[in-house]
Amino acid sequence: MYNQGKDYNDPKYDQYGYDDRYETHTGDPSKDFAYRDRDEFSRPRNASYIVPEDIKRFLLDFQGNIRDKNVYEINHCYESTFNKLSESYFKNSPWPSAEIVAEIVQNDEIFLILYKELYYRHILARTQSGPDQQQRFESYYNYCNLFNYILNANGGPVDLKLPDQWLWDIIDEFIYQFQEFSKYRSKMALKSEDEITVLKGNPKIWNVHSVLNVLHSLVEKSGINQQLEAYGSGVDDPESEASDFGRHPLYKMLGYFSLIGLLRLHSLLGDYFQAIKVLEHIQLNEQTLYSRVAACQVSTYYYVGFAYLMMRRYQDSIRSFTNILLFIQRTNRMLSTGSYQVDVIKNLQDKIYKLLALVLTLHPMRIDESVHMQLRDKLGDKLQKMQRGDLAIYEECFSSACPRFLSPVPPNYEDPNANHNKEPFALQVKVFMEEVKQQQLIQNIRSFLKLYTTMPVSKLATFLDVSEEVFRTQLLCFKHKMKNLVWTKGASGLEGEFQSASEVDFYIDGEMIHIADTKVARRYGDFFIRQIHKFHELNRNLRKTASTN
């Protein structure tokens, strides 16, 4: 049984070693939260429901595998059996309540916490009406209990093993439910007075500081940053840098996934610098033992690439997107058919292609041919329209591919007709479109510069139908926009050096503009001729050997 007896409200007690920016997270609603009627959230649901025998057998098998720490069988129950039974028995309805399941599993508290994590996730994903306010609160309390059990184990790691996929999904779902609650909370026009009163009285439920505190606490408890730093330094045994908690697979993987969760959360809040900074010990350009969950790997590069895009680090953004698209091409066949991971990865893949189309239009450069072909097949028409400067297509692609931004603060409860959930999204779209508008003439300038080596500035301005003064300003803009910070070496993704990736360069001498290609075309013909000569030489040697024998 995990400990809830300490007085964590004592300001002198800093449970996880963090300052006052992050509130203490104990998992005990009676201590941490001001909800006035906790009993309402503990009432049993569908108490008269008769559980089918198939479900009973599954629950008992699932419980036994968790008790025996049989990770392979736990993963089978989690990824396969649970989804198949959901499709057969609970396609559009909730699973049996925890109160009913408690009778079957003899009040196994840890199993019930894990079961409720799946129970509320299923409600959010499958039921037509989605979770009500009560269920959103209950899900939060259950996450509090789960993280409290894991983080309060001061005597040593908890005696629990779960598959990496489930650990990733716990962190991923925790942030997703926070995101959904933030959107739900901001839609004031659809709420009754009672719902608003409950929200006003419980400002710490799904509070952004609580979510940050959980993720930072898991990172700290696991010592994952120290292990990653040792791994990057070439230490033979990175786990030697960790405590007993860091060497335990449960804590180590939860710590790693929490870093990715922080990347996602900061991206949702629009803090792209901090989003990249939390990954400063993760070697993004190398495959590591910590990146075995495909959905985690894809999510990481999606948010990293998007953060680079919004920071105007276009080359780093393109590299991130192309690397993960190649990874998806290689691993698609390895994913089990019917796994929900396939849908998650496919959804992110479609978004990544749209973001890649955006950034390649703003910053053209050579990418892997297979990725480029897929991009043309999927978004050929949109690419052409964006290259012609169609702002509506830019906004459409960005709106459908960007993260679902959210505000970290509660709405104004005194204005019941307000609907603030779209404000963060609208702000980020505005920021991006301002950048696009600044580069609107650059596409045409680039195409003209490719055609000439020397030309009067006034003549090029006439071709573009702008004044000479405006054209000179746009040439400076072209120079500025084509030069950005590019990662070259080092663990931190924030490091780099300024480089220009434009395929043409120019300088102005008085009234004349002088243009030169900066990219030397690859000589594919010479390569093939050398290979043909080698083939002929090999063929002659084989013939000589055969005639000698």
Structure description:
- This protein is mainly alpha-helical and 549 residues long.
- Among the domains are: 38-160, no CATH class; 444-549, Orthogonal Bundle (Arc Repressor Mutant, subunit A), CATH 1.10.10.
- Helices cover 60% and strands 4% of the residues.
- It has 23 helices and 5 strands.
- The strands form 2 sheets. The chain has a 3-stranded antiparallel β-sheet.
- A hairpin with a 2-residue loop joins strand 4 (504-509) and strand 5 (512-517).
- Helix 9 runs antiparallel to helix 12 and helix 12 runs parallel beside helix 14.
- The radius of gyration is 28 Å and the shape is globular.
- The termini are far apart.
- Residues 1-44 have low confidence and may be disordered.
Throw out a few tags for this protein:
23 helices, Arc Repressor Mutant, subunit A, 549 residues
What is the overall shape? Answer: globular
Unreliable residue runs? 1-44
What is the residue-mean pLDDT, rounded to a whole number? 81
Strand content: under 5%
Number of helices: 23
- CA-based gyration radius: 28 Å
The biggest beta sheet, please?
Answer: 3 strands, antiparallel
N to C succession of SSEs:
HHHHHHHHHHHHHHHHHHHHEHHEEEEH
Structural class: mainly alpha
Tally of strands: 5
Helix content: 55-70%
